Every structure is written in C-alpha cells, then in structure tokens.
Amino acid sequence: MTAKAKEAKGRKGAAATPAPAAGRPEIPARYSRQILFEEIGSEGQARLMASKAVLVGCGALGTVQASFLVRAGVGTLRIIDRDFVEESNLQRQILFDEEDVRALLPKAVAAEKKLRATNSLVRVEGVVEDLNASTVARLLDGFDLILDATDNFDARFLLNDYAVKTGTPWIYGACVGSYGLTFPILPGETACLRCVFESAPPPGLSPTCDTAGVLGPIVGIVASLQAAEALKILTGRRERVTRRMAVMDVWEGRLDLIDQPPRDPACPCCFRREFSYLEGTLGSDTATMCGRNAVQIRRRDGLRLDLDEVASRLGPLGATEKNRFLVRADIDQYRLTVFADGRAIISGTQDPAVAKSIYSRYVGT
User: Fold this and answer.
1) How far apart are CA 135 and CA 280, in angstroms?
2) At what angle do helices 216-234 and 60-72 cross, to 10 degrees?
3) How high is the mean pLDDT in each 10-residue block of the chain (365 residues)?
4) What is the model's pLDDT at position 301?
5) Which domains does the chain have, with CATH numbers?
6) How does strand 179-185 pair with strand 244-249?
7) φ, ψ for residue 294 (rounded to 5)?
C-alpha cells in the first residue's frame, strides 16, 4: 500500500469514529454509523451514553424497544415486567426463545440476559415486579424517560400521573390485530394521556389480543417509532420530538399522522393536578393479561411469600414446577403462577372474581 493510500485510509477511519472532544467520553467504534447521522453526532451519542431510560413491560412492544435502545448505546435501561415467558409469546416478542419457555424465566430476567450479551457497555436491569401505586416511585425515580410497553389502561394512567407530577417525558404505544397507535407525552408541553383518553374503555368494548390477536409487523412498527422518539429525547434533540400521533394499520397499508389535541383545561391530571391513580384511589388489584386467558392478582399488604412453602402446599394438588422466581401449579382447569412478591397469575379465566376466589383458596388472603 502506498503512503498516499495509507493516508486516505486513515482519514476514512477517522471519519467513521471522530476523536472525542475535550472533556467528552470516547465514543466506541460500535456506534460509528449512528454518530455519522448528523442529527445525533458525537455530542448526541455522548448524551445517550449518559442517559437513563426505564421500560415498563417487556412483551411485544417492550422487547423491540429494549433491543433498539441497548444497541444504540443508552447508558442505563431498567426493564420492569411482572410476567414470565410462554410459548405464545415467541411469535412477536423478539428477545425470547424456546429455552426461556422451558426454564419458566420471567421476561425481565430473560431480557436482561439477552441484552447484556448484545451490548456489555449498557447497564441493563431486569426487575420482576408489578408496577402499581405502591411501587411506582421506587421503580421509576431518577430516570430521564419512561417507555410504555404495558397492556392495560390502569398501568398507563398510573404512568401518566407519575410522569405529569415529576415532569418526566414518556412515550405511549399500543397495538392489537393489525392496528397500532403511538405518541410522545411531554408534560407541560403536550396533551397528557387523560387529555386524550378521559377514562379507560369499559371491559369488553374494545378489541384485545385475546379477541383480535396481534401481528408481529405492527408491533415492530409501533415499537420502532417509540424508540425513534426516545432517541430524540435522550440525545438532547427534544425540539425534534413529534407532536403528532402515528396511527397505522399494516393489513390495510395505512399510516396517518394526526396532530395531538391541545391540552385540555378540564383535564384532572395535567391541569387540576389530581393524581388519582398515583394515590391509589383509582385502579384495580386485578388485571386481565393481554393475549392470555388469565388474570393477575396482586396484594396490597406487601406480604412476600416463601416459594418453597408455596410449592410444598400446592404440590399435592396438581403438577407443580418451581424455580427461584416463581411456582407454577396446574390445579383442575386452572394454572397458578405465584411470585415471591405475593402476586399470582391465574390462567384459565378472564373473570377477576373467579381469579380472586382461586387465589384466596390456594395462596391465601
């Protein structure tokens, strides 16, 4: 190779990974293609590497968002999820595989393992807990951004209360069938969730994953748009955050961008600053699990369970499996999955009253 060719090659390499400015951390070469994008550059990447995001839910939307953000180089990503990996998840939840199903791994645990292997420079924290009024502050305090990957309106209204009260931006996302919707919420700048949806739709009125199913491609699109807005916020380009809702249907081949409504002066959350979900006066101790014939029961007393004791008690009643995270037992037509924090997922019913009865009978009150 001639001296001229070597010099040209050196210039090309320098362009791919710019030298750090004084006082700025060195940017690893793995992010070279991202910093070539002028809207991010070295400065935006440095901001991203120092940022902290929290993802609530690690199902379909959550696994895609988590993968993109960890690969992009977010500094810290906390993943909060209450559920475990099942075979039906594998159609659309891209971080999981059949071994996770066989091992009865909680989704947060399986995701943390996969993501740490993807990018060891990112601090990934998998937290197996239910987000509710008693845990929300402990789980979300100190983060720059909240990402929504939940499956019910109680959780989203709780996130909205917390975000508005603390001034933390968050990004809403939802999909069912072939249809999806996403938009960012910037407290004090844009409409909050309760400006857009005053209350949750009545049970049975709206389609769910159980009744309408869900396609993997719509999940990927919605989650990708959420991740893109997240990168704008975390790289310091908040002025580039869209103020519109993305509404799409992959089966019909339709994508619409709709202006968000203005902030509602009658909104109980962002104008009157009444945080009913955060205070626990609204919301429920039960939640129907999206895409599952199952209901989650949670305790309000904070009592933790001895899983060895639970397994020994349920063992004589039906086939039982246990690991350090949970106990699963098949009793009659129901499957009970009991966690150490006192929660249980009752599969085989969508009726909260039935689920509560089973919980009381086999786990306790």
Assistant:
1) 11
2) 40
3) 47 41 72 97 97 97 98 98 92 97 96 98 96 94 97 90 98 96 97 90 60 90 98 97 96 96 95 92 75 82 84 90 93 92 91 84 78
4) 65
5) 28-279 (3.40.50.720), 293-362 (3.30.310.10)
6) antiparallel
7) -155, 155
Task: Note the pTM of the prediction, 2 decimals.
Answer: 0.82
Buried b / exposed e along 348-362 (16+ C-beta atoms within 10 A): bbbebeebbebbeeb
Place of tokens 């999940």: 219
Tokens representing 216 are 């993997």
Residue partners of 47: CB distance under 8 A and separation at least 6: 234, 235, 236
Which residues share a beta bridge with 319?
A: 330
DSSP state of 315: G
Residue 156 has a pLDDT of: 94
Tokens (6 digits) for 217: 């491609």
What does the block give as tokens for 2? 């001639």
Q: Phi and psi (nearest 5°) for 201? A: -65, 145
Q: Please, what is the Cα angle at 291 between 290 and 293, to 5 degrees?
A: 90
Neighbours of 262 (CB within 10 A): 9
Per DSSP, helices labelled H in 119-152 are 136-140
Considering only CA atoms, give the Rg of the chain. Answer: 22
* Alpha-helical segments (H) within 192-215: 193-196, 209-212
